[in-house]
Specification:
- The structure holds two protein chains of two kinds.
- Chain A has two domains: 127 residues, 3-Layer(aba) Sandwich (Rossmann fold); 76 residues.
- Chain A is built from eight helices and five strands, in the order αβαβαβαββαααα.
- In chain A, strands 3-2-1-4-5 form a five-stranded parallel beta sheet, with helices on both faces.
- In chain A, helix 5 runs antiparallel to helix 7.
- Chain A starts with 9 loop residues before the first helix and ends in an 18-residue tail after the last helix.
- Chain B is mainly alpha-helical.
- In chain B, strand 1 and strand 2 form a beta hairpin.
- In chain B, helix 5 crosses helix 9.
- The radius of gyration of chain B is 21 Å and the shape is globular.
- In chain B, strands 1-2 form a two-stranded antiparallel ribbon.
- Classes of the chains: A alpha/beta, B mainly alpha.
- Strand 5 of chain A pairs antiparallel with strand 3 of chain B, so a sheet runs across the interface.
């Protein structure tokens, strides 16, 4: 039987929905922290950090997990999300199931993709396994990350390039403003000059503006992507919520004195 | 023609303060335009005039900055799948006719009652159209907000869509099938209002929503196509008369191209009724602002008598309120974008536990 040590019982008193964040070997990595905090913020759920000492390391595990859970709760606190932590020891699956059972209203379990899949196979709530750079499918992920950093470098390059080009266009007009104004206001066929200039500037400066907002992280929201993910989570929840239920038979004549 | 222009028009000298003012107003105007499909122009023209730019140059330069801004905004929103190009182009044709009629009416009034009469006509058009349409749009936006639901096609639009009057037109992005004849009044009114108060979108967008049954997202995006077509035509016309001050245009454009893209991005974050809400708010504040300008024109026509000091104060209040309208719209957009950005999270691709 698993030896369970619970550090924080506050969640038992709270009725809000929760996301259980499962540490990998006592550690909550940055991508797991980011994902769970953002997910909790979006769904309005609380966070519960769970570290399971499966190798029975004892005090060293507790110190390590407490520090890492502290980081998670600190991030959660900054985002106005309630967060508590607990440490258990023994088999991961049992520990998670027990925690879910004790706390009630755990909707999702978030864990690191490095956590062995067999140890979380039979958990009764949906498990979201967040990709990390050193995942088993590492090559693909590292490539994706490299591509992402490459694309960021590309955006920086484009922003700088279009910015310089735009500045050059502006400089060309404003350093010769007297001559430009004289020619551009002649009217007639010269009308093509201001029109062509504003079209050219709108293309160059428009491209600069587009890349600048991208660089600042302000990009259009792809609603389909959000819907797809939400749909996926809901579907998974529906299929996995086959939690065994205990039915108690109550004898109506029990302890009835006739 | 161009000689006259060169002799008559005096282009201003630019100072750092003017540049900053035009850039900032351009940015805010662009933000509002990218979001609701129009706006900004009503502050820029009087704003430039207050810097000493002659009226015709202010109108010409404003129009010349408007069409590239609309082009960039329309392209951006087209990429988000919000622009119905066919709808925009069909409406732009009738809007072109509306502009011509609007200019003719303006000229007629100018000849009969002079500049004060023309200004009074413009202000009364502002007040009448913006209050009526603005209140209707605001009521609709509040109703949607209270009910918490999405937008619904109004009864009038549904009835018009059911009338099978040849030629019927299908607008795929807008998901509307309606007779061509019902698009005509919307485009025509847009053009007339654009010729009168320089912001056709205040009638074009509500017209598309409440008469044609287009969603506010597609209506505001397609309005940018109309603005581009009309603005391009108008700009060529003004440029042929040598009235465009390219320096002013480029400064405004520097700000507005940044703003219009931000506004377009904003539409992907907020709920659709926010477009109506922002539009109605701006329309109503601008209507009140123009209301303050009316006594001056009535005085100039000899219909009432007020002293010079009062007229100056009323003029200042009118201009400040216009700036306030634009600022309010921009603030609502930025705040709602910020809130939506915080509330919305796009998760990374997930790996399901096996």
């Amino acid at each position: 039987m698993t030896d369970l040590i619970e550090k924080d019982n506050r969640n038992e008193l709270r009725n809000s929905r929760k996301i259980l964040v499962l540490a990998n070997n006592g550690l909550f990595r940055d991508h797991v922290i980011n994902h769970s905090v953002q997910l909790a913020g979006r769904l309005g759920y609380d966070l519960v950090a769970l570290s399971v000492d499966s190798h029975l390391e004892g005090r060293s595990f507790e110190t390590r997990s407490a520090e890492s859970a502290g980081n998670l709760c600190e991030r959660a606190g900054l985002n106005g999300i309630h967060c508590s932590s607990m440490t258990r020891s023994g088999d991961i699956e049992f520990a998670v199931e027990d925690a879910i059972h004790d706390m009630k209203r755990v909707e999702i379990v978030v864990t690191d993709s490095e956590t062995k899949s067999e140890s979380i196979r039979n958990i009764s709530v949906p498990v979201v396994s967040v990709l990390s750079a050193s995942d088993d499918q590492g090559g693909k992920i590292m490539t994706a990350q490299r591509e992402s950093s490459n694309s960021k470098a590309k955006v920086i390059g484009k922003t700088a390039g279009f910015g310089l080009l735009s500045a050059a266009c502006y400089a060309a007009v404003f350093t010769n403003s007297a001559a430009v104004m004289q020619t551009f206001t002649k009217g007639g066929w010269y009308a093509a000059l201001p029109i062509a200039t504003v079209v050219a500037i709108s293309l160059v400066h428009g491209a600069f503006a587009h890349n600048l907002w991208s660089l600042l992280g302000i990009e259009a929201l792809k609603r389909d992507q959000v819907r797809k993910t939400e749909h996926k989570v809901i579907q998974k929840r529906k299929t996995q919520r086959k939690r065994p239920r205990a039915y108690a038979y109550v004898n109506p004549f029990h302890r009835v004195d006739l | 023609m161009h000689d006259i222009a060169n002799e008559a028009v005096k282009f201003i000298d630019l100072t750092a303060a003017y540049v900053i003012f035009l850039f900032v107003v351009g940015f805010i105007g662009g933000l509002v335009s990218g979001f609701i499909g129009s706006g900004g122009a009503f502050v820029l023209t009087p704003g430039m005039m207050s810097l000493g730019v002659p009226g015709t140059v202010a109108v010409a330069s404003n129009m010349c900055h408007k069409f590239p801004k609309a082009l960039v905004g329309a392209y951006k929103r087209f990429k988000y799948g919000q622009v119905d190009l066919k709808l925009g182009l069909v409406l732009a044709v009738s809007a072109g006719a509306g502009v011509q009629v609007g200019i003719k009416i303006q000229r007629m009034i100018l000849e009969k009652w002079g500049q004060a009469g023309s200004d009074l006509y413009v202000s009364l058009s502002f007040v009448a159209v913006l209050i009526v349409v603005g209140l209707y749009v605001l009521r609709d936006a509040l109703n949607i907000s209270k009910s918490g639901g999405g937008e619904r096609v109004v009864l009038l639009a549904r009835k018009l869509q059911n009338i099978n009057l040849w030629p019927m037109m299908t607008f795929k992005t807008a998901n509307v099938r309606i007779s061509f004849w019902f698009t005509l009044p919307v485009g025509f009114a847009t053009g007339m209002l654009a010729a009168t108060i320089a912001v056709g979108g205040f009638i074009g967008v509500p017209g598309m929503i409440y008469l044609l049954g287009v969603s506010s997202l597609v209506a505001s995006a397609s309005e940018l196509v109309i603005a581009f077509v009309m603005g391009m035509g108008g700009s060529i016309n003004w440029a042929m008369h040598g009235m465009v001050d390219i320096r002013l245009v480029l400064i405004i454009l520097a700000g507005s191209l940044l703003g219009v893209q931000l506004g377009a991005i904003g539409t992907t974050y907020v709920k659709e009724h926010m477009i109506k809400f922002v539009m109605a708010t701006i329309m109503l504040i601008v209507a009140v602002s123009r209301g303050f300008a009316i006594p001056k024109y009535l005085h100039q026509l000899g219909l009432i008598s007020i002293n010079e000091g009062t007229m100056t104060v009323l003029g200042s209040i009118s201009f400040i309120m216009m700036c306030f309208a634009l600022l309010t719209g921009a603030t609502i957009i930025l705040v709602s974008m910020w809130k939506a950005r915080r509330a919305t999270y796009i998760p990374e691709p997930l790996v399901e536990a096996s």
